[in-house]
């Protein structure tokens, strides 16, 4: 793509020849012009959950409160660790740890 662009071809021509979109051609050519390389950039780091630091405490809570809902687990974790969290964050952390949790109380 870079060579074709250096030969004076338009983004549209290159895209048609290679079978990709013009935005892809533009992005690759721009990356090459900026870095001088066609190597991809490193992947971004993303956001790391603050609950990763308290996973051992979460495991202990699961053991101590086996019938707790995710909401109850989140509240207990907030009290124990003095941190703000949400039901969905706790659910994702439990899933990462290999647990499945019920979302409602058992009907008795």
Number of helices: 6
Number of strands: 0
Domain module tally: 2
Instruction: Look at the helices and sheets and give the structural class.
Output: mainly alpha
Radius of gyration: 25 Å
Query: Uncertain spans, ≥5 residues at pLDDT below 50?
Result: none
Q: Considering DSSP H and I runs of 4 or more, what fraction of the residues is helical?
A: 40-55%
* Run of helices and strands: HHHHHH
Cα distance spanning the termini? 66 Å
Strand content: under 5%
Largest sheet: none
What's the rounded overall pLDDT mean? 89
Gross geometry: rod-shaped
Q: Top keywords for this entry?
A:
108 residues, 0% strand
Would you write up a description of this structure?
With 108 residues, the chain is mostly helical. The chain folds into two domains: 2-35, no CATH class; 50-96. The chain is built from six helices and no strands. Helix 2 (11-18) packs across helix 3, helix 4 crosses helix 5 (70-81) and helix 5 crosses helix 6. The radius of gyration is 25 Å and the shape is rod-shaped. The protein starts with a helix and ends in a 12-residue tail after the last helix. The model has no long low-confidence stretch (mean pLDDT 89).
